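To close the section, here is one more complete example, presented without commentary so you can practise reading it yourself. The ligand is iron/sulfur cluster.
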Amino acid sequence: MHKAPQTYKEYHGQIDEALHDQQLRKTLDKYAVTYRENRAKVMRDIDEKGLIHAIAEFKDEAAAHMDELYEQFKREAEKRGVHVHLAKDAAEANQIISDIGKKYNVKRIVKSKSMTAEETQLNHKLEADGFIVDESDLGEYIIQLRHETPSHMVMPAIHLSRYQVADDFSKVTKVKQDPDIDRLVKVARVQLRRKFIQADMGISGCNFAIAENGAVTTVTNEGNARMTETMPRVHTVLVGLDKLVRSIDDAMIALQILPRNGTAQRLTSYVSWMCGAGPCASAPEGRKIMHVVFLDNGRREIAKDPLFHQIFRCVRCGACTNVCPVFRLIGGHKMGYIYIGAIGLILTYFYHGKDKAKVLCQNCVGCEACKNVCSGGIDLPRLNREIRSRLVSDKDDKNAMGSLMNAVMTNRKMFHTLLKFASKAQRPFTGGTQFQRHLPMMFMKHHDFKALPAVADKAFRDVFAQYKPKVLNPVMRVAIFAGCAQDFIYPEHLIAACKVLEAKKVAVDFPMEQTCCGLPLDMMGQRKGVQKVAIQNIKAFANGNYDYIVCLCASCCSTLKKHYAEFLESNGGISEAAVKAFSEKVVDFSTLCREKLGMTADDFTKIDEKVTFHASCHQCRALEAAQHSRDLIAAAADYVPCFEEEVCCGFGGTYSVKFPEISAELLRKKLKNVADTNATRIVMDCPGCVMQIKGGVEKNHMGIRVSHLAELLAERVKR
Ligand code: SF4
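Output:
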């Protein structure tokens, strides 16, 4: 079994191994691209958002009535000849299943894919108790032969090539096998058919346990689950309490999304509904012996949690993994313990303990791609942030870097004084350029995949008076929220914005008491620090009577607009109304230009320059504003779309410091896609992405201009 890393050093070693596995990289990369294209096609014929909303609703309702639905299921199933058990934890569930085997004199067991059985590590227990256990799902069968664990919830052997599988099958059959997929499937079929015929008991998982009639449902593509459920004389189902739903109608709603999200198919090949112990020729009395074992393992407690109950909306489609840029690089064995991917990081914390989760759950770049596709609309990034915050609150978790950042960033004057000091102290290292060119190796190690930016000579706050738009009879009053990166590293972005706004007769203000948005602290799990800076910012903008608070950093903007209410919901330091009033006024620069100021091609003198675009994660997913930027680029220049425009560049704030090897690979892909456009400039809406991409372009001498959208617009706006 994969070992959950306990230290960053250990984890970096595991990541390094995965990054150097060319076969893994090729397989996952190919899958990521085809999955995204095919998913988009099959989603076109349904109301995706409506269905996700409906799933969230009935799953929330089921979680809120978990005990009641369990009792109803038990009554209904028992009426139909099924034995129903409830296990408080993994050990008890395994013991119950082992006892069922012993009671019915079982020798051989076939299993179909069940992540719940992985959660309880059922095979170890059954094998230790003398049973012969054979996995029957093709992927599970392959990884059982290799003594591995699943690397994906839906496709457990996705990390393997057909050549590796041919080698494994050659060993088991003692005949050299051809690496042709159809032939390999036939080999597996011959092997598995024997096992089905010999088996005394089948163990399956369950996608939905239906309370109204005591039925269990499995959704598969191979039909092996159906063989497991029907052929042996005993059938045992292991199912988490979270799989309870009220009715068949509810399950039918989820079945419209599950295959589309899981494998980008409209339908899976098999949906099996087992309602009661049916006829069975191999059973002594001609009727199946059927047991259903429900697993609690903390689920009843989580169902009462006001925030985390939403994890039970999960239908295990695996989409959050399919779109995760980190999974795409390192695979499931390095991005989870037993449950993998975005939901896996959260489930690891609850089902397998914080010691297994504490390092793993840091490996989220925060791109929100998972939230964007989740079948149950689970706010996965938020839940992961909350877990990081809980881990930091634990007294035994040492986080020296986080504590230091917290001390500095929550004291605005100290923080800004340090940044101003840095702008002077860096001179020997910058050689008068915008980059740190001569840093000692201790700072560069692992981070030299990009040129690091210099702190600006003068912060925006120190030159604002000079660039403040001079506007008579303004059409609106706007305040700029700068964020640390633009205030101190890229003031030119904000100066450019002032020029654009002046051209549109907008009065601009810059409240000096504003400070960091809090996102870096949140990434470090420093929730108290986040609350402190959030309150400071809300107060800084409270008395200005502004129409909008404009933000040129997509990440800061989504933090201010979408997350302040969440950060401050349990903090008595400020009223809910004040938080709401603040967040409602926050708007990103492209939305301000397109929607609020109505800027079109008429506002610009268009040039021929080929300009491509990087859609920053927070801009395209959290703010859903990327199209505004595309429209504005096209209005001012010759816009050239970039392949995977909305895929993360690898910055992720403090993520690129914690996981530079992953950040470097994501940047490498981004730069290749940019180069393929033949554009002479790339534009984006986030200073973090500018830092990453500009640093990469500089390091690789690519000769492409890297600009914030505001800089392009300021050059072309008609005055
Ligand atoms: S968390 Fe959402 S996207 Fe991920 S497996 Fe569960 S339902 Fe699918």
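Once you have examined the tokens, check your reading against these statements. The chain has a mean pLDDT of 93. Residues 22-43 form the longest helix (22 residues).
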